[in-house]
Design a protein that fits this description.
Radius of gyration: 16 Å
Helix content: 25-40%
Strand order of the largest sheet: 3-2-4-1-5-6
Order of helices and strands: HEHEHEHEHEE
CATH class: Alpha Beta
Shape: globular
CATH topology: Rossmann fold
Distance between the termini: 15 Å
CATH architecture: 3-Layer(aba) Sandwich
Number of domains: 1
CATH superfamily: Phosphoglycerate mutase-like
């Protein structure tokens, strides 16, 4: 079963990397694992409690995401304004020499406006409560829920020039 999953991921990523200019692939992820918002006793708080950085596991997952997407020809990267989302996007942004555009998570209309007219593949890093809404706004009809404990969902939306978009949900 694991071999099948790996083969499926490879096939999808290859398609995204070589997608015709008439279609667009948008990769959406929730930010990777965040560090505890409360520092251990005696430790100094290094970030506001509502904006914790990634944990060590989160940094590993962000690196894994960059490795998976490095050949997908991502041309644009968007992330919410929160540190954990920007840190999740950072390894791919560095590898592709791209700037991560920060878009407030509570303003999905502004992100949709940013996406309008863009050609090429896109990575969006959001949150468990924003990614499902973004999927809907991209034309995905199925309801998607992301439990607060899940950080390993990779949503791939393939948007053809005409017709319905296709959604593939993977784990990484």
């Amino acid at each position: 079963m694991k071999c099948f999953r790996v083969a499926a991921v490879c096939a999808v990523l290859l398609l995204a990397a070589e997608s015709a200019s008439a279609q667009q692939t948008i990769f959406l992820v929730r930010h990777a694992e965040r560090a505890d918002a409360t520092p251990p006793a005696g430790a100094a708080m290094t970030a506001p409690s509502n904006d914790p950085p990634l944990s060590a596991a989160g940094h590993e997952r962000a690196a894994r995401l960059a490795s998976m997407l490095r050949t997908t020809n991502v041309k644009y990267i968007f992330a919410s304004e929160f540190l954990r989302a920007r840190q999740t996007a950072a390894p791919l942004a560095q590898a592709r020499h791209l700037e991560t555009v920060s878009v407030p998570g509570k303003e999905p209309d502004s992100l949709m406006a940013e996406l309008r007219g863009l050609k090429g593949n896109i990575l969006i890093v959001g949150h468990s409560n924003t990614v499902p809404d973004l999927l809907k706004r991209l034309g995905i009809k199925e309801d998607v829920l992301i439990p607060d404990s899940e950080f390993d969902n990779l949503f791939i939306v393939v948007r053809p020039e005409s017709g319905e978009p296709t959604l593939l949900r993977l784990r990484f």
